[in-house]
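Researcher: I'm preparing a figure for a lab meeting and need a structural model of a single chain. I don't have an experimental structure, so a prediction will have to do for now. The sequence is pasted below. Please return the structure as tokens so I can convert it later.
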Amino acid sequence: QVQLVESGGGLVQAGGSLRLSCAASERTFSSYAMGWFRQAPGKEREFVAAISRSGGQIVYADSVKGRFTISRDNAENTVYLELNGLKFEDTAVYFCAAKNTGLGAAVFRSTSAYTNWGRGTQVTVSS
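Model: Understood. Here is the structure written out token by token.
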């Protein structure tokens, strides 16, 4: 089972930027579709962005499109989320998730699609 560890969260002013990283333990990382989700206090976990195993397919939530960028480095077993133009409403715990897709090229928006989750990293945006 792949283990995921997020890092890079912190406190930032509105309009600022952060780069989140998610390091995976699995040497077959390139077989996994990856996703980023976030959960604010009192709210359900919501989809942010997802990337296929090769990086050829990428999708974003409408709320972050044009501001956030997901990418991956299969040689480093890491997926990234670049957060730009941060808003107060982006404040949440950000989680990465993995799903083994074998040779598939799909991306997944649903939390239920993913089998492995990290513990999250806190992003706090001050207004």
